[in-house]
Amino acid sequence: MSNEVKLFLTKKKNSPIQNVWKRLKRNRLAMIGLFIIVFVTFIAVFAPWIIPYSYSVQDINKRFIFPNTQHPFGTDNFGRDMFSRILYGCRYTLIIGFGCTSIAAIIGTALGSIAGFYRKVDNLIMRSVDILMGIPIFMLALSIIASLGPGMRNMMIALSITSTPAFVRIVRAQVLVVSQQEFIEAARSIGANNLHILFKHILPNSLAPIIVQFTLNVGNVILWAASLSFIGMGVQAPTPEWGLMISAGRTYLRSYWYMSIIPGIAIMLVTYGFNVLGDGLRDALDPRLNN
Amino acid sequence: MLKYVLGRILYMIPVLLGIIVIVFTLIFFTPGDPAMSLLGENATPELVARIHDELGLDDGYIIRLSRYVVGVAKLDLGISYRTRQPVITEILSRYPTTLKLTFGSVFLGILIGVIAGIVSAVKQYSWLDKFFTTFSLFGVSAPSFWIAMLLVLVFSLHLRLLPATGNYTLKHWILPVFTMGLQCSAFVMRMTRSSMLEVIRQDYVRTARAKGQKEFIVITRHALKNALVPIITIIGIQITGFLAGAVLIETVFALPGLGRLIVDSVSFKDYPLVQGGVLWIGLNCVIINLLVDIIYCFVDPRIKSQFTPIKLFKNMDKKNSNTLDVKTDV
């Protein structure tokens, strides 16, 4: 056996996940995005223990205090500490972002797999998706909220529904591609049933675009949720949701600009994190860039 | 060409019908009696019964849906509960504002976005590229209403250069159009850059350079022309997104647009106006998508040959899967 062959055989092979992580690590922007997401998740989980003041207790004597050492982000028109409200608001932002996207991903993956794998219902599912995508996301969300009434739960239902069609399309396209591969034919020829093929072979091999869409969608949902709350159709006061906080500060923009500007920076940073991580994942998971 | 356009128009009909069914169904199952909303404080059992009889509110879902579809075909979208005016009149009175805002900002967005995208791609990894890329990434991540408030704070409240609200003069339009245009340019720039980067490395671009063609001509005629399809896709998405999402900017700048009308109608439970408004925007989006598809043909003749009315439904998915990477925003 030649030395090269020995070297090849003894060389430890990385798992696909390790390869993706290695490529992702080289992308500086993606790592910044990941850091922002991990940081915000940490704050969201430990918010009740981190916040220096209560996020809801009002103190009329402490209204409109500009950012200082005691109140790093100042206080609002009810004397509530903005820093505590922003930190606690991470919870709502992430619950809405991850919650809606997870629901959309589960439903979208199920429908997309059915459409791609069982061709009889393909047309029905895909035409429904076309129709849903015919209405702009924001208008569809508004119509659903008009029907169910404003509020966080209903907004989450609306944003889950509006996020689903994109997942259906991506999963279906991926299932169609993967199901043509030879290993599926091999699995079928050794007697594997449809469900086994779908769950054990097709879906695990379709994960890459779903993960990318998931990451980018969380960022988009956070923006849509903030927008809906801003116009009074989403989360209702006194919840410390960032979009709502921008809206509340609008009246005092001239004198107390920090009330609106700081929550906006928070939304932008988190969305930026998800966007750059999504872009980085897209590159890292791209099989063409394997080498 | 005519066959292609006809095919696309035919495809519009089921999509439009679907949108009508979705919008109608959502509002149909909303709790509350429309007659009570229409009559307000004057509601008496006799009047409620009369309204039920006149509007056919006691009929079943299918009958009311059919009646609504026929009404839509005649551009009769019902009567607003709040103003007692025909819904279509209300919509048309607000529509020009949204249209001006949308097209003004998309025009600005294309202007800035395409130029910045081309410069970024041609001078890849230069400081200019880094600046534009960072700007666009923050542009797509920031909420539009927040950018609007930042601009109001700087240009209206502190520098006192531009008015903060209203739509009386051209000056009033600068900030709203600039806000939305800036965000549009971020999306267009990202797409132009990535699309140009793919094209710029093609052999025919090198050939054009090798035969001594001027760099400007190489970039505009050889590269940009072939990079246009994804750029047009994102512009189409931006227009439809802005038609729907203009409400945020209309709120900040107190512009009497269609989006604001729909949101107010949701608050006042004026459901015919919500239905009509959403449907109107849906119709606009379907038309924009049709126009985008027609423009594709002029830009890339290969697309036209892919589509015949019979193959249309099969190919729609193929085409859609090509544009999946495009992100949408409000």
Topology, please?
The complex is a heterodimer of chains A (291) and B (330).
Chain A: H1 3-10, H2 16-26, H3 28-50, H4 82-117, H5 122-134, H6 137-148, H7 152-178, H8 182-189, H9 194-202, H10 207-230, H11 242-249, H12 258-284
Helix pairs in contact in A: 2-12, 3-4, 3-12, 4-5, 4-7, 4-10, 5-7, 6-7, 7-10, 8-9, 10-11, 10-12, 11-12
Chain B: H1 2-28, H2 34-39, H3 45-55, H4 61-73, H5 87-122, H6 127-141, H7 144-158, H8 170-200, H9 203-210, H10 215-252, H11 258-267, H12 271-299, H13 301-306, H14 312-322
Helix pairs in contact in B: 1-4, 1-12, 5-6, 5-8, 5-10, 5-12, 6-8, 7-8, 7-10, 8-10, 9-10, 10-11, 10-12, 11-12
Quick summary of this structure?
The complex is a heterodimer of chains A (291) and B (330). By secondary structure, chain A is mainly α.
Q: Can you tell me about this structure?
A:
The complex is a heterodimer of chains A (291) and B (330). Chain A has 291 residues and is mostly helical. In chain A, 71% of the residues lie in helices and 0% in strands. Chain A contains twelve helices and no strands. In chain A, helix 2 crosses helix 12, helix 4 runs parallel beside helix 7 and helix 10 runs antiparallel to helix 12. The longest helix of chain A is centred in the middle third of the chain and has 36 residues. Chain B has 330 residues and is mainly alpha-helical. Chain B folds into two domains: 72 residues, no CATH class; 213 residues, MetI-like fold (Orthogonal Bundle), CATH 1.10.3720.10. The radius of gyration of chain B is 24 Å and the shape is flat. The interface between A and B is large, with 57 and 58 residues.
